[in-house]
Specification:
Elements: E1 6-10, H1 15-31, E2 34-41, E3 45-48, E4 51-54, H2 57-76, E5 85-91, H3 94-104, E6 109-113, H4 119-125, H5 128-135, E7 140-143
Parallel strand pairs: 1-2, 1-6, 2-5, 6-7
Antiparallel strand pairs: 3-4
Helix pairs in contact: 3-5
Length: 151
């Protein structure tokens, strides 16, 4: 049997990724594993017919600072759960950065939340989880939050 000792949990600060992190905490606790929590973001680039506008250094710094603050809060609020956790923040295409961090940190499995979007929304927004599943060289566990109760 393969021993799972390190889980990578990419988060985007949504309820879906919160649920995936909670799931990973329970799994890591049961397995005696540690967790690497990561967030990847892309700097906005706006295209125009005559060129493109790239975020200024000030905007980039603000985005990085806000992302690091949120990532630190996600980890700190769960430190009392008895699972060793560390964090990684990356600037880049999220699914590519997830795969890069998985290799660098030598994780055994990636646990990622999925929104379960369909149709036009999925086509327009894409799916980071789907891209990770298609491109990862490590096992990937997708976690979908429970459906809201029906009235």
């Amino acid at each position: 049997m393969i021993a799972i000792k390190r889980l990578l949990v990419p988060i985007d600060f949504t309820d879906t990724s919160d649920f995936a992190l909670e799931y990973a905490l329970q799994l890591a606790s049961a397995l005696g594993a540690d967790i690497v929590v990561m967030h990847a973001y892309e700097l906005p680039i706006y295209g125009f017919p005559d060129g493109a506008m790239i975020a200024t250094a000030e905007v980039a710094t603000k985005l990085s600072t806000a992302a690091q603050t949120a990532l630190d809060a996600a980890v700190t609020s769960r430190k009392d759960r008895g699972v060793p956790m560390s964090s990684v923040l990356r600037d880049g295409v999220p699914y590519e950065e997830i795969n890069t961090v998985a290799g660098e940190m030598d994780v055994d499995i990636i646990v990622i939340g999925t929104h379960g979007r369909k149709g036009l929304t999925r086509m327009l927004l894409g799916s980071t989880a789907e891209k990770v599943v298609r491109t990862a060289t490590r096992p990937v566990l997708t976690v979908h939050p429970p459906a809201p109760p029906k009235p």
